Amino acid sequence: MKTALITGTSKGIGLETALTFGRAGYKVFATMHNPEAASDFKQKIKNESLDITISKMDVDSDASVKKCMDDILQKHGSIDVLVNNAGIERHGSIEEMSMDDFQSVMNTNYLGVLRCTKALLPHMRKNKNGCIINVASISGHIANSPLGAYAASKFALEAISEALAQEVKTFNIRVAIVEPGIINTEMAADISVNGNSIYPHSKRQAGLFKAALKTPTPPSLVAVKILEISDSKTWKLRHPVGPDAEPFMAWRASLTDEQWVDWNAASDEDWYKSVEQDFGLNAR
């Protein structure tokens, strides 16, 4: 039986991925910050008789990651698949966001992935087998306000994943980056308006996300892609997911950097008109 360790499984993409792997016959170690609050998840595991074990792990903490990983490896020997999914989002203008928020996002979304990866790599390397799947975002290619801090963490994750793939291929360890677009999760729904901001971008993005979520893409779609990567033996590095992921990245790539800056710096009226014209979304 193949084993998978998945981080950030309390909700959203992580929860759906744990269930999807469990239903596919994997032995799953589902980690999260607060297992006590996972009563619905535990009930689903029981109802479907899935081989899923929920463990407490805070990816922000070296000690917590080490303790959880050591416990699992001592009991079960090895992990075949690591899905680094745990992530947080903080949004706001660069001037107005606190340094604590910047540090929190980078600590979870980037350093958290490194902590988990480094904990398992020696075992995967020794076994000459493994698959590491990092859940990034189209924000790992597209930086715009008010998601600057989040984009920075995902750009960093893209870069370190690409470097890691080069290092571990000779040990038969596959690395894949999953890049969801706008997915119907609490994180996406929480892109809210900062009414006190001197910058207009928070209000604009809140409207854009709200309009996009009127035709929602479920997190289960991302979970199915992650399972597909695990099972397929593919060495493909990047995997955009969702109907808007590839089109939006292609649209950004079609613009010069200066055009991109100008688009985001446009007046409200011009920006809203452009979104309606280019994407068919009323973000007002």
From TrEMBL:
GO MF assignments: oxidoreductase activity
SUPFAM superfamilies from the UniProt entry: NAD(P)-binding Rossmann-fold domains
Keywords in alphabetical order: Oxidoreductase
Gene3D superfamilies: NAD(P)-binding Rossmann-like Domain (3.40.50.720)
Superkingdom of the source species: Bacteria
Family: Belongs to the short-chain dehydrogenases/reductases (SDR) family.
PANTHER family in the cross-refs: SHORT CHAIN DEHYDROGENASE, SHORT-CHAIN DEHYDROGENASE_REDUCTASE FAMILY PROTEIN
Protein name as it appears in the record: SDR family oxidoreductase
Organism: Aequorivita antarctica
